[in-house]
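Hey, sorry to bother you again with one of my protein questions. A protein chain has come my way and I'm curious about its shape. It would help a lot if you went through both lines with me. I owe you a coffee for this, so here goes:
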Amino acid sequence: MSGAGELGISGIACYQPSDGLMELKLAVAGFMSKAVGNSVTYNPSQIVLTAGATPAIEILSFCLADSGTAFIVPAPYYPGLDRDVKWRTGVEIIPVPVHCL
């Protein structure tokens, strides 16, 4: 039995929505609004939570491009990007060298 201020696992230890728990999305929306001085309102239903950068990059790749198309990416870049994007989505990575001043 959970007391006040304790998190009970029974309600969350099962399959959850693939875009994240609404309670967490509400908290993220509130946090982000405060972070920008309440000048922007964030809609929790438009927030997608992922288990890290790799799934986020993959989701964006599927949304923004089709297999056989390409992303132009400033290089050097995250070395796992080729794996994260190309292997599953079929999107090519075209590195463009960026020289630091």
Observations:
- The chain has two domains: 16-49, 53-100.
- The helical segments are 22-35, 53-64, 81-89.
- The first strand starts at residue 70 and ends at 75.
